[in-house]
Amino acid sequence: MSVQDGSLVSLEYTLRLDDLSVVESNVGQEPMQYTQGANQIIPGLERGLAGLEAGDSRRVTVQPEEAYGAVDPDGFQEVEKQLVPEGAWTVGSLLVATDRDGHERQLRVHEVREHTVIVDMNHPLAGKTLVFDVKVLAVG
After folding, report:
1. How far is CA 61 from the centre of its chain?
2. Where do the domains of the chain lie?
3. Closest by CA position to 54, among listed 138, 140, 131
4. Any residues with CB less than 8 A from the CB of 91 and at least 6 apart, and which?
5. Is the pLDDT confidence value at 100 over 90?
6. Structure confidence at residue 75 (pLDDT)
7. Per the CB 3.0–4.6 Å rule, which of 8, 57, 73, 124 could disulfide with 135?
8. Residue 49 scores a pLDDT above 90
9. What is the secondary structure of 51-71 as a DSSP string?
10. Is the pLDDT of residue 60 over 90?
11. Closest Cα partner for 1 from 57, 51, 39?
12. How far is CA 80 from the centre of its chain?
């Protein structure tokens, strides 16, 4: 049986950036499971897995527009420094903010100024080409 809409797919993967540095991997760990066609994974990866069968391996390269999108300039916001914990006044620090609806969102400190901090609300992988080395373990 091949991967098609509605299939429950179990796979192992290694996610790399286009310079081939490893971002994450589940090889040797619990397999990832998703339903093909249910928008549970990024579109470019889903498209790259279509038609594969259990036991198949493939390298799937996904451009930003088929993954987490381009970096949105509106995703950078300037906030009063006093609203950011002092321990996070360092470029690259990760923060978790809660919006009015109670949804959590990860932010990254982009720049620290005298009285304000610029936070980046873009997904950490926005604007990046992603390279997945995948092995389909099961298709149901």
Report:
1. 14
2. 8-69+126-139, 73-120
3. 138
4. 109, 110, 111, 112
5. no
6. 94
7. 57
8. yes
9. T-BTT-EEEEEE-GGGTT-SP
10. yes
11. 51
12. 28
Tell me how far apart the alpha carbons of residues 102 and 107 are, in angstroms, rounded to a whole number. Answer: 15
Structure tokens at 59: 């390298």
Q: In which element (H, E) is residue 46 found? A: helix 43-49
Name the one residue in this structure whose structure tokens are 């009285």: 115
Strands (DSSP E) contained in 7-53 are: 8-17, 22-25, 32-35
Per-residue tokens: 125? 């992988």
pLDDT of residue 97 exceeding 90, the answer is no
Indicate if 73-120 has the same CATH topology as 8-69+126-139.
Answer: no
What is the assigned CATH class of domain 73-120? mainly beta
Q: Say what the pTM is.
A: 0.85
Contact present, 91 and 108 (Cβ < 8 Å): no
DSSP assignment string, 65-106: GGTT-SPPGGGEEEEEGGGS-GGG-STT-EEEEE-TTS-EEE
Enter the tokens of residue 10. Answer: 């179990």
Tokens of 12: 């192992």
